[in-house]
Amino acid sequence: MNQASVRATTGRLQQPYRRLLRRRGSALRADDLDASHGTILYLEDITVSFDGFKALNALTLYVDAGELRCIIGPNGAGKTTMMDVITGKTRPDHGSAWFGQTIDLLALDEPEIAQSGIGRKFQRPTVFENHSVFENLELAMAGDRSPWKLLAAKLSGEQRDSIEQTLQLVGLKDRSGARAGSLSHGQKQWLEIGMLLMQRPRLLLVDEPVAGMTPQETERTAELLLSLAGERSVIVVEHDMDFVRSIARTVTVLHEGSVLAEGTIDQVQNDPRVVEVYLGE
Amino acid sequence: MIRIMRLGQVRHAAPAAASGGDFGGRVFYAVLLAAALLVPLLNLAVPESSALHLSTYTVTLLGKYMSYALLAIAVDLVWGYCGILTLGHTAFFALGGYAMGMYMMRQIGSRGVYGDPLLPDFMVFLNWKALPWYWHGFDSFAFALPMILLAPGLLALAFGWFAFRSRVTGVYLSIITQALTYALMLAFFRNEMGFGGNNGLTDFKDLLGFDLHRDSTRVGLFLVSAGALGLGYAACRHIAASRFGRVVQAIRDAESRTRFIGYRVENYKLWLFVFSAVLAGIAGALYVPQVGIINPGEFAPINSIEVVIWVAVGGRNTLYGAVLGAVLVNFAKTWLTAALPEVWLYALGALFVVVTVFLPQGIVGFLRQRLGAGS
Amino acid sequence: MLLVLLALCLLWMSTARADDAAPLPVDFPGLVAALPQADFAAKQAIVTRMTELHVPQARVLLAAWLDNRLESRRSDGKVFVVEEHDGTLVLVDPFDGKGAGEGAADDFERVRSNNALRKLLKVSIAQFDLKDPDPRVRAAAVRQMRRDLDEDTVTALRAALTQEKDGRAQHEIRVALAVSDLGAGDAAVRLAAVRALDGETAADVYNALKPLAQDSGTESDASMRAAAIGAVRHIEVWRNFYEALETLFFGLSLGSVLVLAAIGLAITFGVMGVINMAHGELMMLGAYTAYVMQQLMPHHVGAALLLSVPAAFLVSGLAGVAIERTVVRYLYGRPLETLLATFGLSLIMQQLVRSVFSPLNRSVATPEWMSGLWQVNDLFSLTWNRVYILVFSLVVFLLLVLILNRTPLGLKVRAVAQNRGMARAMGVRTERVDALTFGLGSGIAGVAGVALSQLTNVGPNLGQSYIVDSFMVVVFGGVGNLWGTLISGMGLGVVNKLLEPYAGAVIAKILVLVFLIMFIQRRPRGLFPQKGRAAEGT
Predict the structure, then answer these.
(1) Burial of B371 by CB count in 10 Å (0-12 exposed, 13-18 middle, 19+ buried)?
(2) In-domain check, residue C124
(3) What are the pLDDT digits (tens) for B268-297?
(4) How many domains, in total, are found in chain B?
(5) What letter would DSSP give residue A229?
(6) Residue C86 at interface with chain A, using a CB cutoff of 8 Å
(7) Buried (b) or exposed (e) across C78-97, using 16+ Cβ within 10 A?
(8) Are C149 and C98 members of one domain?
(9) C504 CA to chain B: closest CA distance, Å?
(10) Same domain, yes or no: C275 and C386
């Protein structure tokens, strides 16, 4: 699929997204995120080791606000570990991680990071299998997360609309009441993307979004990711080079826990070090 | 083999059944209401000579089942809905029971064997001179009632606060809940604890001025237990059907995913655990005046595991299944321990195995599957 | 007729003797014959006379008497040293030490003794032993005499000292004399005695010195008291040291039981991830196997016990395989369900044992070589059965480590534990490995049961009391880490025993449980967690 056709479809999709995403969130929206310097994520000198093995080795990486960044690298390069550090699942031994100017990610735990505006889509689709598709989106919806509030929480008309819109967007409108566990693999991927959207994050981490998808589904995913960037920042980890080529503006290559190369897809592909890592040995 | 494996797959209740269309719940309310009307009638109004007469023994037995059923829904709430397999819930049950027992102990006053106006018999027997500080206040029901809720609630709060914050889950959590109730059992067996040691608290005379040996009091206790069960069920149903309940079930199915969409999992678990412990405490407080004794044996880990099997037999994650399981298993126990005492443990043991291997969704799940297949 | 006459005659003679306090017979046979009719005073005289005579047979007789194994035949008043077996007495002639047939217990009357007599018997035996050719026997005899010193014994000891060549025995005699000198009138003698005793550790020496060291004690001389205080302090230092050592040993002994109970679980839970609540009952099966083996071989207590180790391994191991094949295999990956199902099995097994063996406790006999004390020195002794069980637990542990690390089965077990799918792809028959691993863990539970049968009574509830503890040990040590299990079991045992003197047994146990609950919350992966990405989970 070529660049031009992606652009065309993107244009068509963009309108509803924008409307959906621009709506003012509730109090829980990360209002203290300050990306005024144009950079939304600062990872500096991050080291993570497991039993002597350095999964991340003094990794330094910056992501700009509104950017769509692709991260590639061979197995064991530290891609998933990096995601784990950003979302609070793994604490680095060393280094710093800031979300905008003001939010120190290393001082927060997973729910706090999620509430500050970072959403994550896992490699394997993880949706709540015993909940309906609708309920999955409802759970992900940005809003108050305190137990007491949720005991009496009722869906407002506005919230219901926003869920309906997302259902429409991810193409699951007619499966709204179905058990999420009964969806196909691709549908689960889409449901998860829908959940990510309901969270209204400022930074999306997307781990191998098109694994196991049909070509058509892959195409739609590419459109969706492209449409999301700009309004928010997106980091995509992907193995499928065709897919990366179809969406990437800037590509970062990780190798043995640190950045090996960074640039446009062509620059990166012509970098002899990258060639050696992928083809050498 | 393949068939068994498929049956073994854990599939929780369909979302439709959790939120609306609660057929089982309506049956539960109807049966409970019928029992609340019929039992007093058959006991008090029908003459003893009649075949329809319900003996006071049976009334008390049913009242005991009601308190067990309340305990069972408390366990179902944390296990069936949140995946916390607690093997120590009878600790909360027993604490509620002890709080009630202490109140009734103080009500005995000078009518005890030793006639001491202040000290319960066992303290006189142990040659104690003064009432321990933690026994003060229990002469008043207005003090004892909040204690019934607070004692289990605070223990659950303290325990859960540590356990859930440090993310102890699964089997580890089960084992430490078991250790908790085991440690409490050992402690309550000690005479020095001041809870009657081995013998526990017993020889109660009356409750709120009602003579515990009168039929009308027994019927009253049954009604209060049935009422508590109905209210407890309604409260749990409300929790389960709220968005809170959906979060809790999400935690059960994919805990870390729930965290990554911004829910503070430990707070939800803690809230639910404490609520469930308080329910269990209430159940214990209703149980003690009906059986007339509370002793450290109630803390035994095996009791807690037995409660879990009631829930499993009935069908977890449904609440009414827990009630059904509690009543059925306890009825079988009452009947078997009288008729064929040596068979009871075989039957109970086999029940554990059969239910977990062949009927992971319990009787309710089985019926649902049958009805689902039929329609 | 003649016999009756003779008996009457004897009767008359004996009563007459008792009444008139007639002179004692002078020879050993006469003394023995006089025993049955003698009153306690006369018996004392007889014992003293026998000691003076110093006939070797007399020692055997006195020792048997002290053991309540001296009986006189009702029919003819003849005295025998006996050995009782189920109501029949095996008779030994006191004069030639040869067997004299058997007799029914009812036909015999015990030659009785009282406290004073027993004390005298001990001293008498000691005096025999003072002349024993073995210097160790002589030393032991001196220690025995030291407990009850009087003028006669002191004289005997002084005499013995001149004859004694063996250094150790000489030393014992000097100590005994010094203890006696503590009561001397001459202050210089007393002081010398205290100095001589400084450095001794025996309990009786301590008891003799203690009053001298007290302010209000019997000693008025200040320098004497200072010396006594010094000597007492030395003893106390050693006492504290050995008490600590003893606590450590008790801790390790408890720990060894915990380790035995837990290492089987470390396999089923740690390696396979299966929660086996019937583990305690598999131990119980092992203990009952020991009981049955002893019933089968009633005359070979020790051999039966040794044989029951492999037998219990087989019985419990096969039971484990059966459990795995019929229940557990349907529940892999669902630990909570496994927990409930195996708990059900534990109830069935308990009830089964109640039906077969009765609900009452059975006791398994302890073989000779495992009973009694190992007296290391004055202040320190260990019970043999605990020593053996400690060693046994270490041996079992090391064997298990060897099996897991050095055998093909161990390799497969570890492979399946780490990556089931990959192991299967490599051609490992995972189902077989599962069954064998479960059987191995269960078999070790059975072996642990045999060891337990030497410490407690064997009953249907034997296993229940260990299940919480052994899970705690495994979790505390770090799941999947055998060495962690060893250290945590031993550590918890020692901590428990350290707490006991201050808190009492129950509170100590509660404290340990509470500590474990807190610990698991702090470090859910235990003391020695498995590290790395695989352990972090995804």
Answers:
(1) exposed
(2) no
(3) 999 999 999 999 999 999 999 999 899 999
(4) 1
(5) B
(6) no
(7) bbbbbeeeeeebebbebeee
(8) no
(9) 11
(10) yes
B239-274 residue pLDDT tens: 998 888 999 999 998 888 888 888 888 899 999 999
Whether B121 maps to a domain, the answer reads yes
Selection from A205, A197, A274, A219 nearest residue A67 by Cα: A205
Torsion sign across C-alpha atoms C282, C284, C285, C287: positive
Is residue C6 included in any domain, yes or no?
no
Neighbours of chain A (3+ CB pairs under 8 A): B, C
C473 with C394, same domain? yes
**In angstroms, rounded to a whole number, what is the distance separating the alpha carbons of residues C94 and C81?**
6
Q: Is B364 on the interface with C (CB under 8 A)?
A: no
Q: And the tokens for B331?
A: 């009825």
Domains of chain A: 3-276 (3.40.50.300)
Q: For residues C408 and C369, state if they share a domain.
A: yes
Residue B240 inside a domain? The answer is yes
How far is B253 from chain C, CA to nearest CA, in Å? 13
Q: Identify whether residues C181 and C318 lie together within a single domain.
A: no
What pLDDT tens digit does each residue of chain C (538 aa) get? 555 655 555 555 554 444 445 577 778 888 888 888 888 888 888 888 888 887 778 888 888 888 888 888 888 888 888 887 777 888 888 888 787 788 888 888 888 888 888 878 877 887 777 777 777 777 777 777 777 777 777 777 777 777 777 777 777 888 887 777 777 777 777 777 777 777 777 777 777 777 776 766 565 667 777 777 777 788 788 888 888 888 888 888 888 888 988 888 888 887 777 888 899 999 999 999 999 998 888 888 788 888 999 999 999 999 999 999 988 888 887 877 888 889 899 989 999 998 888 888 888 877 777 777 777 776 777 888 888 888 999 999 999 889 888 888 888 888 887 777 788 888 788 888 888 889 999 999 999 999 888 888 888 888 887 887 888 888 888 777 788 889 888 988 888 888 888 877 788 888 888 888 788 777 777 777 664 434 333 2
Residues 6+ apart with CB under 8 A from A139: A128, A131, A195, B243, B246, B247, B250, B258, B261
Mark yes or no for CB contact C532/A55 under 8 Å.
Answer: no
Say how far apart CA A159 and CA A165 lie, in whole Å: 10
Number of domains in chain C: 3
Complex ipTM: 0.81
For residue C475, what are the contacts with CB-CB under 8 A and spacing of at least 6?
A: B172, B175, C516, C520, C526
Kindly state whether residues C50 and C73 are assigned to the same domain: yes
- Chain centroid to CA C321: 34
- Which secondary structure element, helix H or strand E, spans residue A250, and what is its range? strand A250-255
Place of tokens 């003076």: C52
Is C126 within the bounds of a domain?
no
- Among the candidates C220, C254, C286, a domain finishes at C220
Interchain pair C536, A53: CB under 8 A: no
Q: Are residues C424 and C350 in the same domain?
A: yes
State the Cα–Cα distance between residues A55 and A48, nearest whole angstrom.
6
Contact A115 B262 (CB under 8 A): yes
Report the CATH number that the domain containing residue C360 is assigned in CATH.
1.10.3470
Confirm or reject contact between B190 and chain A (CB < 8 A). no
C148 and C33 both lie in a single domain = no
B375, part of any domain: no
In-domain check, residue C10: no
Give the nearest partner residue to C341 out of B183, B302, B353, using CB atoms: B353
- Within 13 Å of residue A201, how many CA atoms lie on the same side as its CB? 31
Range of B251's domain? Answer: 2-370
Q: Which residues of C touch B360 (CB under 8 A)?
A: 337
Domain boundary among C56, C86, C116: C116
The end-to-end CA distance of chain A, in Å, is: 32
C513 vs B183: CB contact, 8 Å cut-off? yes
Range of the domain at C203: 131-220
Q: How far is A38 from chain B (nearest CA, A)?
A: 25
